[in-house]
Automatic annotation (TrEMBL):
One of its GO terms (molecular function) is mRNA binding. Residues 24-141 form the RRM domain. Residues 54-86, 173-264 are annotated as: Disordered. The gene is NOP4. It is found in: Nucleus. It comes from the Eukaryota. GO terms for cellular component: nucleolus. It comes from Orbilia oligospora (Nematode-trapping fungus). This is RNA recognition motif-containing protein.
């Protein structure tokens, strides 16, 4: 099966130049059909814990410095962001299902880690692992382990894990969408507060007209008309008119500040 997979993947890479081996996404085959995405994600997390434990005990070699550097600067930045946000290292766990019927599992899926180092650890521990050795934490019983509920035949299955093939164009589109989504969302606390204030400002009585379509133009025209009318009235005493105008502007600004404080 592994030789067939190797030949097949080699053929895909030779025929399609947009395909490449992913550094963070794993292809997992020979999965029992009753295992879902939640179980697969659990297996992905457990693989990292067990790999680190075995490396610490000297049962296997850990990740070398050269392997840790493969991800490059971009991976370092993502790792720093992940730690700052307190997120896990398993980005996605997906089971491929039949499109027709009840969406039954097709027996293979994908695991995507946040970086190449984690993907290597997951691959080396999961590849060739018997399903019977994969356990889940029992929530009701602290510290206890419970074997995944699979048939006797499935327990003897060994997972086949490889780095997945990905299309460069699809990956780039996915990254562009993620960047666009990040750009639309307020990132800092100040930006979120400013957005909330804007929403409140839009819903305040006659000020709503200012934010409506064409509202700003109407308001500007109205203000210009008022200025012209007041100027016409104050032709006889321009100094008095200027003082009154400045006083009115100051009063208007103070009122606006009070309204803003009341709405915040």
């Amino acid at each position: 099966m592994r030789e067939e997979s190797y030949k097949q993947r080699k053929g895909f890479l030779e025929k399609n130049t947009t395909l490449h081996l992913s550094l963070v996404r794993l292809s997992v085959r020979n999965i029992p059909r009753n295992i879902d995405e939640k179980d697969l994600k659990m297996m992905a997390r457990k693989a990292l814990v067990e790999f680190a434990k075995e490396a610490k005990e000297g049962k296997r070699e850990g990740i070398s410095k050269e392997e840790a550097r493969r991800g490059g600067q971009e991976e370092k930045e993502e790792e720093a962001q992940r730690r700052a946000k307190g997120k896990g290292v398993v980005k996605q766990a997906k089971i491929v299902r039949e499109k027709s019927g009840a969406g039954r599992s097709m027996g293979y899926g994908f695991i995507e880690y946040i970086g190449h180092r984690w993907a290597l650890m997951g691959l080396r521990w999961l590849n060739g692992r018997e399903v019977a050795h994969l356990t889940v934490e029992e929530k009701e019983k602290k510290g206890g382990d419970e074997v995944l509920e699979v048939s006797k035949e499935d327990k003897k299955r060994r997972l086949i894990v490889e780095f997945a093939l990905e299309n460069v164009q699809v990956v780039q589109r996915r990254k562009d969408k993620e960047k666009a989504a990040k750009g639309r969302l307020p990132r800092t606390k100040e930006e979120r507060e400013a957005l909330d204030n804007d929403k409140k400002f839009k819903g305040k009585g006659d000020r709503k007209r200012k934010w409506s379509k064409g509202g700003e133009e109407e308001q500007e025209k109205g203000e210009k008309g008022k200025d012209a009318e007041e100027k016409q009235k104050g032709k006889g005493n321009p100094e008095k008119w200027d003082k009154e105008k400045r006083a009115a502007q100051i009063i208007a600004r103070k009122r606006q500040k009070r309204r803003m404080r009341g709405g915040a």
